[in-house]
Design brief:
Number of strands: 13
Largest sheet: 7 strands, parallel
Number of helices: 10
Low-confidence stretches: none
Number of domains: 2
Shape: globular
Distance between the termini: 33 Å
Structural class: alpha/beta
Strand content: 15-25%
Strand order of the largest sheet: 3-2-1-4-5-6-11
Bound molecules: uridine-5'-diphosphate
CATH class of the largest domain: Alpha Beta
Length: 327
C-alpha cells in the first residue's frame, strides 16, 4: 500500500515507517520537524508541512495520493499540556481536524490514529479494557479523546475508516540499532533510568507511597517495535475494508519504577542511584492493558514481553548514539 505517515520522523512514527517498508509498503512522511529527526527517515520521502496549514496537507495528499494515513504528529508531554493547554488543543485537536477534512476531500479511505491510554483517565478497574469509560485527567488526554470522537463522527458521516491505537508506555529502540528515542526534554522513565547508569544526576523516583507492592507506580511497557508491527497490521486491515475500532496496545503486564531500575542495573552492570521525591501530579498508581481485543483484531501479539530486553534495546541505542540523532 501507499501510506502517508504524519509525524513519521518522530519516535514511534519512524519505527513504523521502517516496519511499513520492511513489510513491502511505500511510506511517505509528512512532518514539520519540530520534534522529529530528518536522520530517522531512513530514505523515505519527506514532505515538510504543518497540520496547522490545511493547504500544506492538501498539497501533500495531491502529491502522494496515499491509500491510507497513519497519524502520529502531535504534542506529547502530559505536564506541558497542563501548563500550556492551548498548544495541545491546537496541535492535536485542530491539527487532526485539518487532516481529517483534507482526507475526506482527497478521498482517502482509512486512518490509523496514534491514541493513548490517557483517554481513560484514572482507572476504575484493571486491566483496562476498551469499554472503560473515557475520562481524561489532563489536556493531552482530552485532545486525543476529541480526535477519537471526530473519527467516530467522520466514520458515520463520510465512511472514513479508522482505528485508534491506545498505547500504554512505549519504550525501547529499533533492534537493528538505526532508530531510537530522542526527545527534548526527555521525561520517560526508561531513558532517564539509563542516564542514571551513565552517572548523571540521581534518578528522581516520583513517590514510593502508592498502594502497589513496592510503593512505586506500575506501568505496562510495550516495545516500540511491537507498536510498529501493530500499526502495519492495522493499516493493512483497513485496506482490506475493515471499519476499524479502538484497540489497547500494551503487553498486559505491569512493572514498578523500582523493577525498572533493577532491570537497568542488570542490563548495564552498574548501580543506579535514585532519590525518592514527592508524587508527580497526575500520575496514577497502576496502568495495565487488557490487549485481547487488539490481538484478535490484528492477529498480533507483543513479542518483547521481557522488561530486561526492552531496557537492553534502549541501552544499546544510547551507547551507540550518546547524543541521540545528534551523533
Ligand atoms: N517516573 C519517575 N521518575 C522519572 C520519570 C518517571 O519515577 O524521572 C515514573 C512516573 O512517575 C511513572 C512512571 O515512572 O510512574 C512512568 O513514567 P513515564 O513518564 O515514563 O510515563 P507515563 O506513565 O507518565 O506516561
Amino acid at each position: 500500500m501507499r501510506i502517508l505517515v504524519s509525524g513519521g520522523a518522530g519516535y514511534i512514527g519512524s519505527h513504523t515507517v521502517k516496519e511499513l517498508r520492511h513489510s513491502g509498503h511505500e511510506a511517505v512522511v509528512f512532518d514539520n520537524l519540530s520534534a522529529g529527526h530528518r536522520q530517522a527517515l531512513g530514505g523515505s520521502e519527506l514532505f515538510v508541512g504543518d497540520l496547522a496549514d490545511p493547504g500544506s496537507i492538501r498539497r501533500c495528499l495531491e502529491h502522494f495520493r496515499p491509500e491510507a494515513v497513519v497519524h502520529f504528529a502531535a504534542s506529547i508531554f502530559v505536564g506541558e499540556s497542563v501548563s500550556a493547554p492551548a498548544k495541545y488543543y491546537r496541535n492535536n485537536a485542530v491539527g487532526s481536524l485539518n487532516l481529517l477534512e483534507a482526507l475526506v476531500e482527497g478521498g482517502v479511505q482509512g486512518i490509523v490514529f496514534s491514541s493513548t491510554c490517557a483517554v481513560y483517565g484514572e482507572p476504575r478497574f484493571l486491566p483496562l479494557t476498551e469499554e472503560h469509560p473515557l475520562a481524561p485527567a489532563n489536556p493531552y488526554g482530552h485532545s486525543k479523546r476529541f480526535v477519537e470522537q471526530m473519527l467516530a463522527d467522520f466514520r458515520t458521516a463520510y465512511g472514513l475508516r479508522s482505528v485508534c491505537l491506545r498505547y500504554f508506555n512505549a519504550a525501547g529502540a529499533d533492534p537493528e540499532g538505526v532508530l531510537g528515542e530522542d526527545h527534548h526534554p526527555e521525561t520517560h522513565l526508561i531513558p532517564l533510568v539509563l542516564r542514571g547508569a551513565l552517572g548523571s544526576e540521581p534518578l528522581k523516583v516520583f513517590g514510593d507511597d502508592y498502594e502497589t507492592p513496592d510503593g512505586t507506580c506500575t506501568r505496562d511497557y510495550i516495545h516500540v517495535q511491537d507498536l510498529a508491527r501493530a500499526h502495519v497490521r492495522a493499516v493493512e486491515r483497513l485496506g482490506e475494508g475493515w471499519a476499524g475500532e479502538p484497540l489497547n496496545l500494551g503487553c498486559g503486564r505491569e512493572y514498578s519504577v523500582l523493577e525498572v531500575i533493577r532491570a537497568a542495573e542488570r542490563v548495564t552492570g552498574r548501580t543506579i542511584a535514585y532519590q525518592v521525591h514527592p508524587r508527580r501530579p497526575g500520575d496514577v498508581p497502576r496502568l495495565v492493558a487488557d490487549n485481547r481485543r487488539a490481538e484478535a483484531a490484528l492477529g498480533w501479539q507483543p513479542e518483547w514481553t521481557d522488561l530486561e530486553q526492552i531496557v537492553r534495546s534502549t541501552w544499546e541505542w544510547m551507547q551507540a548514539h550518546p547524543q541521540g540523532y545528534g551523533a
